[in-house]
């Protein structure tokens, strides 16, 4: 017996567009397709890949996705999650002219990973539709079951994204690549982009313990402003800074869920049984110009 498409994917369908020709998509059993003849099969786990062209190489591999899911499940990043949700709250994202008549409030998580942040938002904001985009097959499996209102979709953040113009109210970008022109295109008038990125001292103690970890670009804020300014106006910002006391397993997962996993030997991390590290993240909101 063929499983039906998840309700969240069907709810998101009017907003989705073919990644090849940008035509609207319809659903037939477990396949999405457009009038141009392009077809995309849903995975058994409940996600659908709208990737086209060569497979992206930037997404989490299976081990990274599992490490991320385990670490986030500890709740250690709760202060960061709360800051993201504060800046994405409906009362601070309201469009003075109102959303299109009949439109359901929609939040897009660009680079959603396991869906941890988006699922928390959906639990806090009942009735909201969540769309999570990622290139990692394993991450999308986690995201597809993170919340019943979360539609998990495979998409390359560096390409044209498979959503209609002015189709979402909020875009979340938590430690993910950014595509400012596409984010601005997809956001409705008055829509908000919420960006979380590491401050210079983020996980400093862990980086000292594991020197092979990828460093933080000292010009990150300058580059961020230069990329966003043509499309967005800067709004409020929250600085998240808190000590995290981690056991060796959680600390290892924190290393292995990041791009640093490609530069370290998991068997040679040499982490202590307990380590205190600093969570230091800047979370800012930007409004479409």
UniProtKB/TrEMBL annotation:
Gene3D superfamilies: Vaccinia Virus protein VP39 (3.40.50.150). SUPFAM superfamilies: S-adenosyl-L-methionine-dependent methyltransferases. InterPro entries: Methyltransf_25, RlmA_N, rRNA_m1G-MeTrfase_A_prd, SAM-dependent_MTases_sf. Residues 107-191 form the Methyltransferase domain. Keywords: Methyltransferase, S-adenosyl-L-methionine, Signal, Transferase. CDD domains: AdoMet_MTases. Residues 17-51 form the 23S rRNA (guanine(745)-N(1))-methyltransferase N-terminal domain. This is Methyltransferase domain-containing protein. The lineage of its organism: Bacteria, Bacillati, Actinomycetota, Actinomycetes, Micrococcales.
């Amino acid at each position: 017996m063929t499983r039906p498409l998840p309700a969240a994917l069907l709810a998101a369908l009017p907003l989705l567009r073919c990644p090849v020709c940008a035509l609207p998509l319809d659903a037939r059993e477990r396949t999405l397709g457009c009038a141009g003849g392009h077809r995309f099969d849903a995975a058994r786990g409940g996600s659908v890949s709208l990737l086209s062209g060569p497979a992206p190489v930037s997404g989490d591999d299976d081990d990274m996705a599992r490490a991320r899911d385990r670490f986030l499940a500890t709740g250690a990043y709760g202060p960061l999650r709360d800051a993201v949700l504060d800046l994405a709250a409906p009362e601070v994202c309201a469009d003075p002219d109102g959303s299109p008549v009949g439109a359901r409030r929609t939040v897009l998580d660009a680079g959603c990973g396991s869906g941890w942040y988006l699922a928390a938002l959906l639990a806090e904001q009942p009735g909201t539709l969540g769309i999570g985009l990622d290139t990692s097959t394993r991450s999308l499996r986690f995201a597809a079951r993170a919340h019943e209102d979360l539609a998990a979709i495979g998409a390359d953040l560096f390409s044209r994204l498979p959503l209609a113009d002015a189709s979402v109210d909020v875009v979340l970008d938590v430690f993910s690549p950014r595509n400012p022109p596409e984010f601005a295109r997809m956001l409705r008038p008055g829509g908000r982009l919420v960006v979380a990125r590491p401050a210079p001292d983020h996980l400093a103690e862990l980086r000292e313990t594991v020197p092979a970890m990828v460093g933080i670009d000292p010009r990150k804020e300058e580059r961020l402003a230069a990329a966003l300014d043509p499309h967005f106006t800067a709004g409020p910002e929250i600085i998240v800074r808190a000590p995290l006391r981690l056991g060796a397993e959680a600390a290892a997962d924190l290393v292995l869920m990041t791009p640093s996993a490609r530069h370290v030997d998991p068997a040679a991390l040499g982490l202590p049984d307990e380590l205190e590290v600093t969570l230091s993240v800047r979370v800012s909101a930007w409004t479409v110009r």
